[in-house]
Amino acid sequence: MLGRFDSNQAMPRRAALSVLLGAPAILIAAEAAETAKRRRLASGRSVSAGSAARRRTALAAPEAPPRALEISTEASAAHRPTPRPAGLGAPADQRRVAFTRQETGEAVDLVYYQRGDYEPKAMLQIHRALRDVAGDRLGPIDPRLIDLLSAMGEEVGGREIVVTSAFRTRATNDRLRGAAPNSLHLSGKAVDFFARGVPTDRLARLVARRAMGGVGAYPSRGFVHADLGARRIWRV
């Protein structure tokens, strides 16, 4: 489980992606702190002949890359962008997602994927909106769920997509009545949502056509559950 994270903090591109894909937050924070320290030292250093010589010596032996960068590389390889199905309207090299988070009213509407890769700044904003709201905690979110929300927005003709649950901490999951102890929400591989003006059963059928994993329709509660687990369909 990741800790709190300030989405306004400047971070290197690969480090930001490692947060999105589940790298430990402490490594990312350490890298960000080290980067800020190096920038402060560089701006405050006097331009004397002796210090210039020392800088040239230091630059000749670059530091080893932080461990966080190694983790982000491994995580990125494990979550390569999924091909966009044909006929969904947007260019194949660009994807937009729009949704509202029910508990907070946070609205997201942005391009999060283009030129063959996910955009770190956009993904951080999405990541924040899909956090565990009860505990105000970030956790991993599988990019395929964002692709699903994007596709569903187009399938329902731009009607508002409202997310009711995404990543959950263990504490939040344990408090929810009827939640599975091993819920895929814990690993950021499940999302619950509805589309305004779209019947729950119809939305569930649209999600099921994607053949991504589990799809549950909850008409009495007005939402659809989608996850990346075993292929199965149910209705409650």
Rg to the nearest angstrom?
Answer: 21 Å
How would you sum up the major sheet? 8 strands, mixed
SSE string, helices as H and strands as E:
HHHHEEEHHEHEHEEE
Mean pLDDT figure = 75
The share of residues in extended strands comes to 15-25%
Number of strands: 8
Spatial ordering of strands, largest sheet: 3-2-1-4-5-7-6-8
- The residue ranges in which pLDDT falls below 50 over 5 or more consecutive positions are 1-12, 22-31, 46-90
**Given the structure, what is the number of helices?**
8
Q: Shape, please?
A: globular
Terminal CA distance: 30 Å
Helix content: 25-40%
Structural class: alpha+beta
Care to describe what's here?
It is a single chain. The protein is α+β, with helices and mostly antiparallel strands and 236 residues long. 38% of the residues lie in helices and 18% in strands. The chain has 8 helices and 8 strands; from the N terminus they run ααααβββααβαβαβββ. It has helices at 13-20, 25-44, 49-60, 67-78, 120-129, 143-155, 170-175, 200-208; strands at residues 94-101, 107-114, 117-118, 161-165, 190-195, 214-218, 223-227, 232-235. An 8-stranded mixed beta sheet has the order 3-2-1-4-5-7-6-8. Helix 1 (13-20) crosses helix 4. It is globular. Mean pLDDT is 75; it is low at 1-12, 22-31 and 46-90.
Which helices and strands occur, and which strands form pairs?
Elements: H1 13-20, H2 25-44, H3 49-60, H4 67-78, E1 94-101, E2 107-114, E3 117-118, H5 120-129, H6 143-155, E4 161-165, H7 170-175, E5 190-195, H8 200-208, E6 214-218, E7 223-227, E8 232-235
Parallel strand pairs: 1-4, 6-8
Antiparallel strand pairs: 1-2, 2-3, 4-5, 5-7, 6-7
